[in-house]
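Throughout our pipeline, every protein is held as a single compact record rather than as scattered files. The record that follows is passed on verbatim for readers who wish to inspect the format:
___
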Amino acid sequence: MEQQTLKSRSEIPEADKWHLEDIFANNDEWEKEFAHVEKLLDEGKKFQGHLADDADTLISCFEWMDDLSLRIEEVYAYARMRRDEDNRIANYQALTDRAGALAVKVSSAASYVVPELLAMPEGKLDEFRAASAGMELYNHALDDILRKKEHILSSVEERLLAEVGELAEAPGAIFSMANNADLKFPSITDESGKSVELTKGNFIQFMESQKQEVRKEAFQTLYSTYGKQRNTWAATLNSSVKSDVFFAKARRYPSALEASLDDDRVPLKVYDALIDTVHEFLPQMHRYVQLRKKALKLDELHMYDIYVPIVPETSMTITYEEAKKMVVEGLRPLGKDYINILEEGFAKSWIDVYENEGKTSGAYSWGTYRSHPYVLLNHQDTLDSMFTLAHEMGHSLHTYLSNRKQPHLYAGYKIFVAEVASTLNESLIMEHLLKETKDSKTLAYLINHYLEQFRGTIFRQTMFAEFEKKIHSVVEEGGALTAENLSEMYRDLNARYYGQEVVLDPEIALEWARIPHFYNAFYVYKYATGFSAAIAFARAILEEGEPAVTRYLEFLSGGSSDYPIELLRKAGVDMETPVPVRNALQVFSELVEKLEKLLE
């Protein structure tokens, strides 16, 4: 049998690689900047103990911190993205480690600032604000610091926490290296009888195969490989959760969840209401699962049957070039300015397109304030990959517009709103395709794909969010996380979310072992809230036109100039109510009904 293996990095055409030279021309330039940042660290000492002297001293300190932050972003982003090109290259592993260590030093060097601000005599900051127009820029940042006063420690304690930060990154770093650089999967037999190396990048492609035996082999091969190190994965995740709990306790929060939410000033009720609202709609999820079983004509629906398209006759092959055109057409309702920036990204090497040996799996958007955004892809010529391109370019244009409109201090948007721009792009493109498609089989295929977005983004991510809440509660109550209890909790949640129509294959209980998001705790719920907000924006843009586009683009340009809940509310979406999530899930229910009729 013919063996298909991944290409090496050198075999990928230059036109399909991102151009990191736009950050640093070469490694020597990176080294110079690294040394410059090291020198800048000491400059902060002259401000220590003097922040209450006068407004000018305080402003100079803020400017030093902002410059340091901007520079370390570039140093770290370049090193990490170089490593992501091929995780096996020792030089870029070393650069990333050095950049991470330097980032901790940067954090430590400025660790006295917030405690010193909070120790100022009452009214002193107000006096400074009144005395200097230069203080106006920092009003929102200062308000955010002051609201967290009870969670800020002394200068000595803050410095200690900053230095412990590097240790706290260890579980995620260990998982990333084991998962991306060391883990190798056996080959499996594809639909045409060829022996193909299983990778994390092509796993979902195999799960969408029309042949159940291919799906089953890919599923069992993937999880049996993870299963060989199940206790290591459990120990690594346990350490990560313990770290979250430690920092929450150190900062006097009731729980790690509340500590995480407070960074975005998101009330706990938003998280809990998401889970409760999704639970309300689980009967609709079960109805969709039942439809899948019927449409696939299966006596038993297994977990490896969840991803295969219900309408096989219209499975689409979409090249990268075709994907770019589809993205542009679908996003035309956002206006010429948005499309021009999008096309600039396609033309000017923002994107690293194809999978290669050692490359980090999945997809992301990144970049720095002074560079353009960057996108890492592992394109597979599927409809899903086209939507991934749209998704990541949504992030990139959010970044581009915020960077253009906001000063560096407020350019970085909070994660709570990060998934809105990405999923809005997907929603607009899907609405365009549904409107333009006349063939009933293709229409059914697209509705199925849209339903999969709902399943993967609202239902699945909320299940992840519920899992994260449970595992942190175990540690907070004095328990430990083991491969056995992690698998038991994960299996029980799958049973609840997928219902009785699905055979819970034992392998699915191990899925927690391969989810990188669990090392960035309480992140995934934002996919679900972001998707819900995106559905609300998409409907408004298609119904209202220009006024809704204007509100939306102002939101994209907002960065972190206000709290995320407020930025969304100004643009017309109130996430403090369950309405956006409920309305999004109502769309899901309507789509299930449409698909049922099309498949009759």
